Amino acid sequence: MDTSLYAAFLIAAFALCMTPGPDMMFIVAVGGRGGPLTGLTAAVGVACAMFVHAVAASLGLSALFLTLPALYHALRWAGAAYLLFLAVKAFRGDDGNGEGTGADPGPGRRRAFWRGAVTNLLNPKVILFNVSFLPQFVNPALGHVREQFLVLGCTITVMGVLVDGSVGLLSGKLTALLRRSRRVARGLDYFSGTVFAGLAVRLAATPK
What we know:
Layout: H1 3-18, H2 22-34, H3 36-59, H4 64-67, H5 69-91, H6 105-121, H7 124-133, H8 145-178, H9 182-205
Helix pairs in contact: 1-8, 2-3, 2-6, 2-8, 2-9, 3-6, 3-7, 3-8, 5-9
């Protein structure tokens, strides 16, 4: 790795992770519904998906979205539909997380992981972001271009877990206290549903 480029990447990646965005809002909503560990698990899912995007960028697969607009739009609408599906389940109070209900929280946390991963993977904007962002910190003159991509991908994955995981834990702890009231619990479900629906509209309404 080019040490100067890597140092610049660390600063830029940290700034991006700290900036509130769709992924962070998603994690807050999931943590608010399922509790601290569920929020953390969702953050790990999102971070793992980011690593998958980095690998795809290193292999040149993400560049397909620059040459195949139909593929981009198909993925965009699939992502919006999935978020709307999550919104409907939230409005109905049907999350299946189990945390705080006496049920086994394991399946709920696994579900949170996959929801975070799928939501991120189905966002073509994240794919295009990786295509344009990561190459700026790769020095082809040093060789091992694919390995440089993987180092950057691992770095932003770990950073995402630390930042978004902390957000998920904090949101989960706060709402765990608020959920002692049934009325507040339903209000949090509506908040989560609104967040999911808003993210779906945002993804569907901004094609480029």
